[in-house]
Amino acid sequence: MNDLETDRNWHWQAVDSERNIARDYRLSFSRDLFGWYVVEQAWGRIGTEGQGKTLAFADATDALRHIAAVNARRMSARRRLGVAYREVPQSG
Protein backbone atom coordinates (compact mmCIF):
# COMPACT_ATOMS: atom_id res chain seq x y z
CA MET A 1 0.00 0.00 0.00
CA ASN A 2 1.22 3.47 -0.87
CA ASP A 3 1.97 5.78 2.10
CA LEU A 4 -0.17 8.45 0.45
CA GLU A 5 -3.21 6.21 0.78
CA THR A 6 -2.72 5.82 4.54
CA ASP A 7 -4.03 8.35 7.02
CA ARG A 8 -1.30 9.80 9.23
CA ASN A 9 -1.47 11.72 12.51
CA TRP A 10 1.15 13.64 14.44
CA HIS A 11 0.91 15.15 17.92
CA TRP A 12 3.49 17.40 19.59
CA GLN A 13 3.62 19.25 22.89
CA ALA A 14 5.98 21.90 24.24
CA VAL A 15 5.96 22.21 28.03
CA ASP A 16 8.00 24.39 30.38
CA SER A 17 6.14 24.85 33.66
CA GLU A 18 8.66 27.41 34.96
CA ARG A 19 7.83 29.71 32.03
CA ASN A 20 4.11 28.80 31.87
CA ILE A 21 4.45 27.27 28.40
CA ALA A 22 2.00 24.45 27.62
CA ARG A 23 1.54 24.23 23.85
CA ASP A 24 -0.23 21.50 21.93
CA TYR A 25 -0.06 20.90 18.16
CA ARG A 26 -1.77 18.22 16.08
CA LEU A 27 -1.49 17.49 12.40
CA SER A 28 -3.34 14.91 10.34
CA PHE A 29 -3.12 13.84 6.72
CA SER A 30 -5.84 11.95 4.87
CA ARG A 31 -7.55 11.61 1.53
CA ASP A 32 -11.20 12.56 1.10
CA LEU A 33 -13.86 10.89 -1.03
CA PHE A 34 -13.12 13.21 -3.95
CA GLY A 35 -9.42 12.34 -4.06
CA TRP A 36 -8.16 15.54 -2.42
CA TYR A 37 -5.32 15.34 0.09
CA VAL A 38 -6.53 16.90 3.34
CA VAL A 39 -4.24 18.34 6.00
CA GLU A 40 -5.86 19.29 9.31
CA GLN A 41 -3.99 21.38 11.86
CA ALA A 42 -5.00 22.11 15.45
CA TRP A 43 -3.06 24.10 18.01
CA GLY A 44 -3.42 25.88 21.31
CA ARG A 45 -2.70 25.64 24.99
CA ILE A 46 -2.81 22.11 26.43
CA GLY A 47 -6.26 21.45 27.86
CA THR A 48 -8.07 24.08 25.78
CA GLU A 49 -10.10 23.86 22.60
CA GLY A 50 -7.52 25.91 20.70
CA GLN A 51 -7.72 26.80 17.03
CA GLY A 52 -7.46 24.91 13.80
CA LYS A 53 -7.59 24.93 10.05
CA THR A 54 -8.15 22.44 7.28
CA LEU A 55 -6.41 22.63 3.93
CA ALA A 56 -7.16 20.54 0.84
CA PHE A 57 -4.58 19.89 -1.87
CA ALA A 58 -5.22 18.43 -5.31
CA ASP A 59 -1.59 17.32 -5.53
CA ALA A 60 0.08 15.04 -2.95
CA THR A 61 3.42 16.80 -3.44
CA ASP A 62 1.92 20.11 -2.30
CA ALA A 63 0.33 18.46 0.74
CA LEU A 64 3.59 16.78 1.71
CA ARG A 65 5.49 20.04 1.20
CA HIS A 66 3.08 21.76 3.59
CA ILE A 67 3.48 18.96 6.16
CA ALA A 68 7.28 19.25 5.92
CA ALA A 69 7.07 23.01 6.50
CA VAL A 70 4.84 22.54 9.56
CA ASN A 71 7.21 19.89 10.92
CA ALA A 72 10.24 22.16 10.36
CA ARG A 73 8.49 24.96 12.23
CA ARG A 74 7.74 22.65 15.19
CA MET A 75 11.35 21.46 15.25
CA SER A 76 12.64 25.06 15.41
CA ALA A 77 10.69 25.73 18.63
CA ARG A 78 13.71 25.45 20.93
CA ARG A 79 15.34 28.38 19.13
CA ARG A 80 12.10 30.38 18.92
CA LEU A 81 10.43 29.59 22.27
CA GLY A 82 13.23 28.25 24.40
CA VAL A 83 11.50 24.87 24.71
CA ALA A 84 11.31 22.04 22.18
CA TYR A 85 8.19 20.30 20.98
CA ARG A 86 8.21 16.60 21.84
CA GLU A 87 6.25 14.02 19.90
CA VAL A 88 3.39 12.51 21.92
CA PRO A 89 3.06 8.73 21.42
CA GLN A 90 -0.08 7.68 19.55
CA SER A 91 -2.55 5.68 21.61
CA GLY A 92 -4.24 2.59 20.23
From TrEMBL:
One of its GO terms (molecular function) is DNA binding. InterPro entries: WGR_dom_sf (IPR036930), WGR_domain (IPR008893), YehF/YfeS-like_WGR (IPR049809). It comes from the Bacteria. Keywords: DNA-binding. Residues 13-69 form the WGR domain. Pfam families: WGR. This is Putative DNA-binding WGR domain protein.
